[in-house]
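--- STAGE predict ---
source: upstream dedup step, 1 unique chain passed
mode: sequence only
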Amino acid sequence: MTHLRIDNFFDDFEAESKAALNADYTDYDHLGVNYKGICVVEDTVSKEKIETAIGAKFKEFICFYRNYDASMKQGTWIHCDPVIGTYSAIAFLNTKERCNGGLAFWRHRALNTDGSYTQEQEKALGVSQDLYQQIHRDGFHEERWEMIDYVAMQPNRIVIFDSMRFHSRYPDKQTDRCIKAFFGKL
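--- STAGE serialize ---
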């Protein structure tokens, strides 16, 4: 699966969007990275909808609202999320008037790969920690990547994808972005 796009994901989008806009946001530290504008929430209904869409049940699951505003300085960071989940999903909660940008998927030009390696691939290829440090550094330099897919932000749209895939919000100059992010481990 490259990605799965589902429109009209939330049964009551207006209530979901309002809950996100009224949430209490804080900084969230995970594996040494500080994420701004996070509000961790429970959502078993969405979890079950995502499980149905991918045809599998999660052993672990986390979701949170994330709210960016124009004052937050966070450059486009091309990355993948294999540590936090097997699958990632981004639900766009912006109203139509506030939709700007979307979600981009990338291939690393020098390494010719569109995602991180599994442990089996790491062993077979002799992948070192230096490689992951290079990918992390390169994630801040768009010219080192080729955009291979893009999903425009639309109200009540969710994009589900393999957490190993390189992705980012796009473009870097988004004004506002309110999302609900989901990560599930099989």
